[in-house]
Amino acid sequence: MAGTGHAQLRDRDDVLLRVKDLVVHFPAGRRRVVHAVSEVTFDVVSGETLGIVGESGCGKSTVARAIIRLVDITAGEVLYEGRDLARLEGEDLRRVRPQVQMIFQDPISSLNPRRRVRDVIAEGLAVWGDDIGSWSRDRIDELMDAVGVEARYGARRPHEFSGGQCQRIGIARALALDPKVLICDEPVSALDVSIQAQILNLMQDMKRRYGLTVLFISHDLSVVKNVSDRIVVMYLGKVCEIGSTAEIYSRPAHPYTRALLASIPEPAPTVEVSEGGIGDELPSATDPPSGCRFHTRCPRATDVCGEVEPVTEQVGDADHYVACHHPAAVEISPR
Amino acid sequence: MADLAPSAPLLSVRDLHVQFPTERGTVNAVNGVSFDLYEGKTLAIVGESGSGKSVTAKTLMNLLPRTAQVSGEVTYDGRDVRALAAEKVKHFFGVQMTMVFQDPMTSLNPVKKVGEQIAETLRYHLGRSRSEALEEAVELLDVVGMPEPARRVSQYPHELSGGLRQRVVIAMALACQPRLLIADEPTTAVDVTVQKHLLDLLDELRRNRGMSMILITHDLGVAHGRADDVAVMYAGRVVETADARTLFFDMRHPYTEALLRSIPRIDDPVHHRLDPIPGRPPELIDPPDECAFAPRCIYAQSDCLGGVPELSGLVGLHRFACLHPTGTERGMAAMSSNRAAGATAAGLPVTGSGGGSG
């Protein structure tokens, strides 16, 4: 958070996914480890879109991959409908996976180049046929139609499609198994600007049509704002700030969030442009800074920031939590 | 060499065409691009992938593969750049005119210390001795805002972050005091906080050294904040060019308008429905003889399909290649007739509410 803490967790019946104190370490040789994700906590309620935003190396993609168990979880819990995905193995894990599907950044390399796109979309159904309703030609046609790829092109291979079309096919593949949760890792970053809007609108439509809960990972603050109900801002494996999208963008409290908003080419009106002047050296994730991990670049840092790790605290009484010893002057509940 | 009036542009490009023969046919990457760049100014060339912006930049720097067929004039300070390239003139490319690329990792040699890479430029072009060149490399790294430059010269590229690597590349580009810097997506591979620093740095260097800059970018926000003039490219042509303010607030080409509308903005409300551009960019092999944007354009009329519109007006003014420009009476008439008909002349459905300034 650049700290820890659980204040941001919500006590609601419709929490679908709860990530608590998630830790992911990668070995870096010579007994050193990369602290990719360090005690990250958040939850997602059913039907919500949670945006995870931060710069490269902040751990946003690793969080996504850990939830779906594409990387090993070092510690912590990933509760999905009350079951801890971090502890599931073998057949139990396999049975949960259709419900949590993923879309990747590079639409072309995430599709098998040697297979026809119809087969790419159908593969999950072919594997899960007996449990989820066996795949039929109609079902594939319906999916292709839903994402805006003409079904008559189903026999073509991925290289015959543009990047935008490939991303549509990737979305159809993810939706084929009727998932509850869709994890999108930078789904529009590799696309041209004129195509980005098409895909973002499509994702909103699919979310509504199939009743999805979405985790949306992006470095692009404008894109994240457009799609998300709630946002987590991450820095160097920690959560800085979390809250409703409106709160985060209208009253950013963490100096790092403010720096991001001030650094984009057309800065947000809620921050001063000068707040973007943080150094451009990201500390090493094998030896992260003590205390608040952001203190080495933070314009507000004092001695305490290097010594004590801040814990998330609520900002006022809004859906807004920040882990900072010196948050920006928005009314903060007494500490 | 001709005497130049003080107001002559530093770089002048006229009717540039670039074609690449491929197995599938000839790719018309650049189709008649013209622009002027004056001393101390920044021109942003904006476009999506395949628009020809990078090919234009590489043509200026004589970096195209041999198979490329180039025609047109490129004049730098009164000299014919293509003739200089043909004569293999030394100490022009990389000295007068230099380029910074998108990915610093691939423009640096991974097995050579960064100081030596900068020094190499100085030794080859300016004949510096090894020790002089290394000293100058430290100074250059200092100029580009590299912390601890004396230590960094003996580091390898992999030891530096992406932002610092790009600073090394900029230092190399500045080594011979160029008058023109071409930056091809210089900040696309880095994070926003780093992007801001690099763009600030380029701005400052341009101001302090009176350098001119061509900034190639797909990011309209970057172009808006950092350029004096902007040229928007589509399918190998400049479709609109103007000073930055006019281009962003009083554009005439429907593509410029549609592109700006399609981008999510930081001050848009949450879950704001985006206004995408339908369809996708055209093929550059055997393009039909019509406005390349017509199939995606909500203003398109039958005359748009009858030939490629020329850029209006004179070089240096607000120019646009459109028969029914947005924000004009012709544009409004085109829009209302398309709405009434429910479709454009190219067959694109148009609904009452869909886009357009109407």
Walk me through what this model shows.
The complex is a heterodimer of chains A (335) and B (358). Chain A is an alpha/beta fold. In chain A, 30% of the residues lie in helices and 21% in strands. Chain A has ten helices and twelve strands. In chain A, strands 6-7-8-3-9-10-12-11 form an eight-stranded mixed β-sheet, sandwiched between helices. In chain A, strand 7, helix 6 (193-210) and strand 8 form a beta-alpha-beta unit. Chain B has 358 residues and is of the alpha/beta class. Chain B has three domains: 1-96 and 178-266, 3-Layer(aba) Sandwich (Rossmann fold), CATH 3.40.50; 105-177, no CATH class; 288-358, no CATH class. Chain B is built from twelve helices and eleven strands. Chain B has helices at residues 53-60, 81-86, 104-107, 114-126, 130-143, 149-152, 162-174, 192-209, 220-226, 244-249, 254-262, 329-341; strands at residues 11-22, 25-37, 42-46, 69-76, 79-80, 97-100, 180-184, 212-217, 229-234, 237-243, 319-320. In chain B, the strands form two sheets. Chain B has a seven-stranded mixed β-sheet, with helices on both faces. Chain B has a four-stranded antiparallel β-sheet with strand order 2-1-4-5. In chain B, strand 4 (69-76) and strand 5 form a beta hairpin. The termini of chain B are far apart. Chains A and B meet through helix 6, helix 7, helix 8 and helix 9 of A and helix 7, helix 8, helix 9 and helix 11 of B.
Rg calc of chain B: 22 Å
Strand content of chain B: 15-25%
Overall CATH architecture of the largest domain in chain B = 3-Layer(aba) Sandwich
Secondary structure category of chain B: alpha/beta
Beta strand count of chain A: 12
CATH H-tier superfamily of the largest domain in chain B: P-loop containing nucleotide triphosphate hydrolases
Oligomeric form of this entry?
heterodimer
Low-confidence region ranges of chain A:
331-335
Low-confidence stretches of chain B: 1-5, 354-358
Strand sequence of the main sheet of chain B, in spatial order? Answer: 6-7-8-3-9-10-11
Number of helices of chain B: 12
Please indicate the count of domains of chain B.
3
Please count the beta strands of chain B (DSSP E, at least 2 residues each): 11
Binned, the helix content of chain B reads 25-40%
Shape of chain B: globular
Radius of gyration of chain A: 20 Å
